[in-house]
Structure formats: C-alpha cells, structure tokens
Amino acid sequence: MPDAVSGTNTEASHEPNSGRVLLVGWDAADWKVIRPLIQAGRMPNLSRLVSTGCTAPIATLQPSFSPMLWTSIATGKRPFNHGIHGFMEPRPDGRGVQRVSNLSRTCKALWNILGQNGKRSIVVGWWPSYPAEPIHGAMVSDQFHRVAADFKLVPGMVHPPQFGEALAALRLNPEELPLDLIEAFVPRAAEIDQQRDHRLHSAARIVAECANIHSAATWLMDRVTWDLCAVYFDAIDHFGHGYMKFNPPRRPAIGEEDFDLYHGVLQAGYELHDKMLGTLMDKAAGATVILISDHGFHPDHLRPAFIPQLHAGPASEHRNNGVFAIAGPGIRAGAELPGVSLLDITPTVLTIFGLPSGADMEGGILTGVFERPPVTRYIPSWEKVEGNDGRHPPHMQLDPMAASESLEQLVALGYVEEPDVDHDKAVKGTLTDLRTNLAEAYQDTGRHADAIAILRELRNADTPHAESTNDQRIALRLFLSAMALGRTDEMAAFATDWDGRRRELYEQAIAELEALRSLARQLQQQPGRDPAEPVLNPEQRAELKRLRRICRYDPSLAVYFRAQVYRAQRRWSDALACLDSIPATDLIRPGLFTDRAELLGRLNRWNEAQQVLNAALATDQTDARVHFLCARVSLHAGDFTTAAQAALNGLELLPLEPYGHYLLGIALTRLQLFGQAVIALNKALAINPNFPQAHLWLSRIYRRSMADPQRAAAHARTYLSLVRRPDVTKSPLSAPAAAPAPRPVAFAASSRDLPPLTDEVVIVSGLPRSGTSMLMQMLVAGGLTPLTDGLRQPDDDNPRGYFEFEPVKQMANDVAWIEQARGKAVKIVAPMIPNLPDGVPCRVILIERDLEEILASQRQMIVRRGREVEQTPARLNRLRQEYLRLILWAKGFLAGRPSTSLMCVNRNAILSDPQKAAEAINRFLGGNLRVDLMAAEVKPELNRQRVRPTI
Amino acid sequence: MTRHIPFSERMETDLSIRLHLYAIAAERLAREGTPLCANAVACWRSATASVSAGIICSHTRILRGDSQPDPGLPGRDELELLIAGKRDKPADTATDQVERTDEKPRNRLPLLAGKNSAEILALGAEGVVVIKGRNA
Is residue B3 very low, low, confident or very high in pLDDT (cuts 50, 70, 90)? Predict the structure, then answer.
C-alpha cells in the first residue's frame, strides 16, 4: 500500500507515458451489443483498440443518471462530492427549471487539474458542460450540438468564443442528411410516411447531433494543441431508448412491420460510432486512447416490457456495467481487467500524465492496465491547489437548493414577487428529484443515515402522499434505508401502510379508472365524433392523470415488504413463505432469487439455496450480488476455491462493493492464502472503513497466521470501537460547517470621488435587512429624489419606511421603468441586480451586514408578516452560503458592468461613524449632498440585531 | 484479439491467475479516518439493502419479461392512446430524460441523394463540408 501522500510502490516502477490522452465517451454503450458486432467485423476500429489494449466491464454508480455519472467520470468523485444531482436544475432566478449546467459542480474536473499543470485540453459535448469553462484549451458545451428551432450560437456554448462561428457553420440539421446515410439505419426509409411516423426523423436527428459533436471535435483537434481530448457522444443512449425495443430478436410486443423498419437502427448507430472512432484515433496517433460508457443498456431478454411513467423511468433500460477499453504506449495488450469503476478514470488519467491522484478521489488507479507498474502518487486534494484552473469564478457557482430557498425567503420577506404557480411547481418538483437522487447516491455507498435524513425531510414536505409523483420512490427508498439501519419498527409501519391505506387508495383508483375507461370507450364510439379530437375533456384528462399516479402503486411489493420485515425480525420461515407466494412471473430479475437463496441459507437448506442461485444465473449472469451469494453458499459448503471464484466474478462487475472483497478475504483465509486475503480485506476497508467484520478477520490473520501481534491488536481495537460505538444512524445529519462571515468592508474602502450626478441611476442594494432602507433615508435627507411608490408602508420592522418601488419585484419580467429612475435613487435588492438592463449608467451603493444579524432580522420579519418558512439548521446554513454567493455575484457583476460605479459600505461602520460614512457616500455621488442631514438620519438605536443572536 | 470469456468459463481459470489480476487491477487507497464513508452503516446490512434496492426498483419500474401481456403499442401507455384516440401515433425517443423544449419543428426529411455518406460524415469537419457542398 502506498504512502497516502507521496508514496510509491515498492516494486520497480516507472513514469508511464506522459503523452496525450484521447478520452471518448459513448453514453450507454454495452459489450453485449459490441462483442457480436466486432465478431462480425462490423466495428473494425474498436476491434483494433480492443486487440491492442485492455478491456473491462465498467461498473456504474447509482442512480445511473448520465449527468451525475459523466461528472463522476471527469472528477473521480461521487455526486455528493461533485454537486451534480440530476438532469434539471431550477433557474437561478427561481422562474422555472433548466437543463442542468456545470455551475452546480463543486470540484475540479480533469481538465481543470491538467490546466493547472500546464496541459491543454479539448472538451466536446461533456455532460454537463454549459456554460463552457474558460479552460486552458477549448471547450464545446453540451448545448452546442442540439438541433434547435433556430440553431443559434448562444454565449457560453464555445470557449474560446472566437471558435464559435466556424464551429457553428459545421452543424448539420437532420434535413441535410443524405438518403444513403439514412438508409444505413432504416433501409426502407423512402417508403415511410413521415407525416404519420416520426421515428425516422427522430433517428435522423440523433445522427445529426452525433455528427455535430464529431465535427467540432475533429475541427478542434486539427487546430488546437492538446494533451487531453475528451469527447462525449450521447447518441448510443438515445438510439437505445428509442430503438432498442426493435433490436433483434423481435419480442412479441413489437409489431412485425415496426420491427422490419427499425430493427437495424441501433446497430447502425454503433457502426457509425466505430467509423468516427477510427477518425479520432487517427488524429490522435501516438496518444493513449480510452473508450468508456457510463452504464450499459439491456439488449436481450432483460429489456423491460414497457417504460413506466415514473421519474427517470427510461433508466430502467440501463444495465449496471458499461464499456471500458484502453490502448496506447505502455498499455498492456490483450488483457481483460477485473473490477473497473467509473470513479477510476480520473485517477488513472492523472497517472498517465505522471500527476498524482487526489486522496479525496473515490476511485483507484488502474495499475493493471500498464505494462509495467506505474509510479502512483497522491496529494491530499487537488481542490487545495491554488491558481487558475479554468473554472467559472466562484460567484457564478450555483447550489440549486440554496438558491431556491433563498428565493423562498425573499418572497416571504416581500422583496420578490410570488413565483408563477407552474414555475413554482416545476422548481419544487425538480428540487425533490435532486434531493432524492442525492439520497440514492448516499445509499449507493451505504451512507443510509445521510440518506434517511433527506428522505424523511422530503416525505414530510410531500403531501398528499398517495397522489404525489415522487411519493412511491421516496417511500421505497426510505424503506431501504430503514432496513439498512435496522429500524424494524419503521419498516413494519411502512409495510402496514403499504398494505393498508395505500392498497385501499389503489383499489379505489383502479375502479374509478375502469369507469373512466368505459366512458372513454363509449365516447369514442359515438357517431359523428371527430377522430382528430381527444376522447376525454380536460377535466377528465386531469382526473385520469391523478388516478394514474395512484395506480403506480405495485401491490405485489406489499408481500415483499412483509417478507423483509419478517427477515429483520429473524422470522426466516415466515419471510420465505412470503417470498414463495410472489408469482413466478415476477421472478425475472435475479433479485428475488437472491433473497430466497439467502433465506434458505438461514434455514440451513443450502442445497436448495444453490439451486435457486443457479436459476438466477440462468436468468442473468451479470448480477454481481448473485455471485456474492454463490460465494457465501460455497463458503458454507466448505468449497473455498469455488467461493473465491464466485466472489471474483461478482467483483469484476461491482468492484466497489466491500462485501464482495470481504467474502473473497474469508475464502482466501480458509485456503490459507493469507497474503492475498489481507489484500482483499484491505480493499473492503478502503471502500468502507466502518466494516467491523473485516477488521476482525484481519486481526485473526495477523495474530494466528502472520505473527504480527501489533497489527492484530490494532485491528482488534478498531473492531471493538466500531461495534461498541454509539449508533451513528441515530445521530442527526450533521450540518456542514458554517459559512465564513463576510469580511468587513469599510465604507470608504472601495469608494472614490466621482463627478456630479447627471442621468445616472443611483441604486441602493444589498441583502434584505442589511440596511438598505437606512441608506435610502440618508440619500433622501441629503437631497436625492427617491424612486418609490410608497405602497409598502412603515411597520415594526422598518418604522421609518421602506422606500420601495413595487415594479422592482418584477424586474425579471419588465424593466421599462428604469428610465424613470435616472437621476434618482432606487432600492434594488441584490438578487434582482442581474436583471439590470444594459446601457443604463448606474452608481451602486452596496451595503453589507453580518450574515447572522441579517438572518435573525429576516426571521423576525417573516414571523411578523405571518409567513411560515422552515428554519432548520441545515436550511439556515444553505441560506448563509447562498447569501455569500449572491453578494459575491453582485459585486462581480457590477464590477464588470459597463458605465457602472460601485461603492461597498458596511452597516456597522455607518452606525459607528455616521458622519464619516455620509462624507464618503457624498464623494461617491458627486459631492452635492447635505452630509450633516445624511448623518443625522442614522439612528443607532434602531439596530436591534446588534447582539449576535442564537439561531 | 482478446477473447471475451463468459463467467461460466471463467471459473475454470486458475485461481492464482485471477488473484494476481485482482491484486494489481486497481490501487485503492485506504482512507481510514476520512469522511468518505464516515456514516456508512454496517456492511452486511447495507449489502442486503442493496439487493432489495435492485428488486424494488425492478418492480417499481415494471421490469417484467415478455410473458407479461402487452399494455399497448411498444413504449406506449394504453391510457394515453385511449385519451388521444390515435393508435397510430408513434412513440418519440426517450432521449435519456431530457425534455426537448428547444426541439425543431419536425420537417419532412427531403432524403437527398448521396453516396458513401457514412464514411464521409465519419471524417468529421471535412466530411460535413463535403455533405453541405453536395446539398448546396
């Protein structure tokens, strides 16, 4: 094991090829499709890559949603450490949602790290990469290639922007694709009535977008010096979701005509990718080439019969193992590697470049791909390495949850207009998705305490339960975490609810749905009905939608839940009886086999358990957990070699499952291969250090077989501390460290003497409750005219008035009023500043205040206004972070805005020396104000939050 | 070319060869004391929950085999068909969850004449110029 920071292997090692790396991403590519195509000679370029390098099935992460996965690939980190949690995100202004951007990414990507080390990168199409980062090299964002109504070149699509026009001219529309190309996908394309059947156009659109990625990549490769070229193609995933159902063999549900038309689309997609890969490889001659996919795609009998109308329903078509292939200088040829994870890509590429991996990266270095053991080095974290890394500036970063809560707070305070109902619904739905995805990511690493905290919060916020879109998903995930945490009571309560209240709702909805269906049939058969018109009216359609949501309930799961409760209560026979009552038609995926086999083992019916597992393997050989259970059964049978082989089978598919390494460690101990057993058990602990049994086995090995009492004692101590420690699962989710308080800014620090005011707009800005009203009072007293409508009356929170102007709240939609503000003072809270229209000269006074005081003051004001906003420590912490970001953002925006002068003042500095503050402000505004009157307006006695409150 | 060996045959491979590959495949740094898995629960319970996650997701995602009755046209929802009353409207591609709000209105593909277009397109930027030139 290397030293954690700068260690090297003790074996002879060498600097690997430190040349270039071509990293090609094919979303959803699957060896199950590729291998037969290679055998048939239909993918010659990939065949070349495979034969000259190493391959592996690469294990995906859960949830297997592409933006999260491709960010993990590029950062070596899991979603809770990289910040990308889903497909969509709320817009920063809270007015609706948008496709996920890279602004939520909280850590450096590969290209940022390389840039800090003098390496140049080309990045094309990576998901998510909009807006393009100002990296050392060139970046074409994931918005560039999409066929859109106007195909505009939008700012942020390309970095550096001067490449934009030339690249945009290379984009193709589907309508520009020649017939012979389309016929490669759909040989009978010319026969299709395109008015009726849009699938031909959909396929052409995927091809065109794929070509747009490829042409941008090749254009840049010919013109930009690069060390890393990372190109991501999403087309195979799109072909999969659209056309895998038509892939041979034809399934009964697929009509013969449809099958005949579209059965070749998917494979033609792979062939086109192979041709493009050939070009990229030729242009990257001498480089190390890596091909990866983020997950696989079921191409066989495991294809789902249909896609459920659930969040991320199409992800049910994904398979847990994708594609990994690597070839190049110093890379071993012809090897098939065991156990590769998406998280291993960044550490391995860094090693190829001779750079250390980050000890905070969650993957490993794939040392097995190198002909000779490479030098493996680590630094604690690349995040701590300072210097220009080509990321967006900090003030542009976005935490969707915090941004949304901040907006909610501002609405509650009355500073921002209530959002549109539809927008609000979309934002809330998206936030729920993001939070649920985050919980699933925690569950994927066994962090169930973190997961359950999020899921409970979501469940409590989500009413009415049975009709909520996400309710079933959240409830099921809660059950899983309760199970992992040993919360039997909670499991039982859930199972009872599922089998009682929810079943009743479901059965009622089924009956109502049937009635609606009958009605629809009757209406459809009415003579003279216009067949172009929908059968049901809008109210009936809404009711249908509601009923369908309730019908997402799956009654057969009730039996499964009951079985799990029995299992948790150690009632093995009752649990098995429940599972045995589940219809055989449900036993398609091996999961249920696995549970049955485990229960049979508990009942000492090991032979039957093995038979059940054999049936599971006959269904699907690629489920790692079946292999792990096979290992367990073999261990019990005393067949330790078979146990080790089975554990290795599972680990090839799921290398980051500590339980698999643990089982292998036991098998190897029994085989008296102690050195290798230690390696396996240490791998288990590298993934999950809180694994008491692994420590126990290591302690035994060191004491009994390796004569190392010191290590034996150390592991024994750790084992005891883990089994005796307080239940971590009961501790509340610890709040992240509090945001650092903003650095005090003296009011004169950023001010300067400016000429007298002309037609500029004087803007008073800051966070709500930071002292903006006090500043307005000072300016008015000094002689400036305010732009205010007086609609918001003085109250206990602001006894001397707010000086607000109602249209400011709607700046996101309308800023025509700004012309009225020329030569006057207007209050615009910081979150509204981005809506300032171009071309209006401004002098902005930005007031800052201690964040704790602001939050306390806001809380008081919200209470007085009779509004209710959640005030949990976690939410307050997110608000602090977001407020900090908002102020940073506003400063950055105003500093870079043409015809704008900015003065930052600190509220406490004004209160402690009003005269000096008034003088500084007067100089900033041209020197014509009445300083004495301004200073007299400052009333320190109104400073009610001066004492730091406890919140 | 590397021959891919299925798992059924993999068990025949000498265990020592597989163990060697296993040992060298990836160097995973022990991170004891770091917060990566600080809140991870006991491993076996977590593993059991993972198995259940697979099952439950399978069920909620209606992953059943071909023996199940087809609810409608492939990729369709029968109730949607019922509402619309148009059984001939084909399903659109799912495109991995992204709503294509910026989708270009569907034009009819003109099906322009071409030759060796896949090879030309695969050339990248140069190929696109050729295709655009032909269409001009």
Answer: low
Identify the CA nearest to A777 among candidates A925, A788, A851, A750. A788
Could A304 and B62 be called an inter-chain contact, meaning their C-beta atoms sit closer than 8 Å?
yes
CA gap A445, A459 in Å, rounded: 22
d(CA A82, CA A87) in angstroms, rounded, equals: 14
pLDDT in tens, A526-555: 888 777 777 788 788 778 877 877 776 767
Nearest to A246 by CA among A260, A230, A235, A232: A260
> In chain B, what residues touch A364 (CB-CB under 8 Å)?
26-29
A337 vs A583, more confident: A337
User: Mind listing the pLDDT tens digit for each residue in A678-715?
Assistant: 999 999 888 888 788 899 999 999 999 999 999 999 99
Whether the CB-CB separation of A829 and A410 falls below 8 Å is answered with yes
A168 touches chain B (CB under 8 A): no
For A920-950, the pLDDT digits (tens) are: 899 889 888 999 999 998 877 655 555 443 3
Q: In this complex, is the C-beta atom of B125 within 8 Å of any C-beta atom belonging to chain A?
A: yes
A 10 A CB-CB count for A874 gives 18
Number of H helices and E strands in chain B, helices first, is 6, 0
Q: What is the ipTM, given to two decimal places? A: 0.78
Q: How far is Cα of residue A915 from the mean position of the Cα atoms in its chain?
A: 51
Q: Is A672 exposed, middle or buried (0-12, 13-18, 19+ CB in 10 A)?
A: exposed
Query: For residues A882 and A871, what is the distance between their CA atoms, to the nearest angstrom?
Result: 15
* B79 interfacial to chain A (CB closer than 8 Å): yes
Residue A820 structure tokens: 């009225």
Number of residue pairs across A and B with CB atoms under 8 Å?
458
* CB-closest option in B46, B93, B111 to A182: B111
Average pLDDT in chain A: 85
pLDDT of residue B58: 46
Choose among A253, A676, A691: nearest Cβ to B70.
A253
B7/A338 Cβ within 8 A: no
Note whether A306 contacts B106, CB cutoff 8 Å. Answer: no
Beta partners for A763?
Answer: A826, A844
Determine contact: A777 vs chain B, CB below 8 A: no
Inter-residue contact A829 to A719 (CB < 8 Å): no
Which two three-digit tokens encode residue A596? 């049955």
Tens of pLDDT along A387-409? 899 999 877 777 777 777 777 77
Please name which of A446, A470, A467, A443 lies closest in space to residue A459, comparing C-alpha atoms: A470
The answer to whether A557 and B59 are in contact (CB under 8 A) is yes
Nearest neighbour of B122 by CB, restricted to A50, A272, A450: A272
What region, left, alpha or beta, does residue A99 occupy, with left being phi > 0 and alpha being psi -120 to 50 degrees?
beta
Q: Which of A30-44, A251-265, A838-852 has the highest mean pLDDT?
A: A30-44
Beta strands in A202-309 (DSSP E): 228-233, 288-292, 296-297
Q: Cβ–Cβ of B107/A175 closer than 8 Å?
A: yes
Query: How far away is chain A from the Cα of B53, in angstroms, using its nearest Cα?
Result: 7
Q: How far is residue A648's CA from residue A594's CA, in Å, rounded to a whole number?
A: 17
CA distance A465 to B30: 42
- In angstroms, what is the C-alpha Rg of chain A? 31
A676: left (phi over 0), alpha (psi -120 to 50) or beta: alpha
Quick check: B19 and A648 CB within 8 A? yes
Please say if the pLDDT value at position A366 is more than 90: yes
pTM of the model: 0.81
Chain B residues closer than 8 Å to A269 by CB? none
Give yes or no for residue A64 having a pLDDT over 90. Answer: no
Question: What integer is the mean pLDDT of A891-903?
Answer: 82
